[in-house]
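Q: Give me the 3D complex with zinc ion.
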Amino acid sequence: MKVKCSKCGNILVISERKLPKNKKKAMVRCTKCKHAIVFAIPNAEELEGEKTEIGTDNNQKIQNAKLVETKTGKEHILKIGKNIIGRKADISIDGDIYISRKHCLIEMKKQTWGLELIISDDGSETGRPSINGTIYNEERISKYDKIILKSDDNIRIGRTNLIVKFY
Ligand SMILES: [Zn+2]
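A: Here is the predicted complex, encoded as structure tokens.
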């Protein structure tokens, strides 16, 4: 069966074998934007029951993520847990004085559907925002924002552009 992502319009093809039995609804993560799509299972016999997460449609879970500097092409592999990004941090970006020593934080978590990356403008982990800000897809995020990143998202810190890549 086919399910359309209500957020980005991506069409997911779901194998009938993966559909939970005795459930009316199931949930699948959009492979493009990671949106949780809840959909009705056709011809479900039982009407009650919780929705069941069945993972991504093709079962190809994303295993790794990295940041790519657009200017230099330099790649920075993200690790599970906290990745502090700055001039002198877990992930160090050289040659940009507009970046704070500890500028922003990307937390990477393993979820059942793959990897989850959450960015916040809090590299110091003291709740202090960076001086020049963290720009996510052309909008400055506050220290209170926790944004879930998708592949090809653009992050700008100082004068450096970073592209998120899952692989
Ligand atoms: Zn989507």
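A quick observation: Residues 65-166 form a domain with the Tumour Suppressor Smad4 fold (CATH 2.60.200.20).
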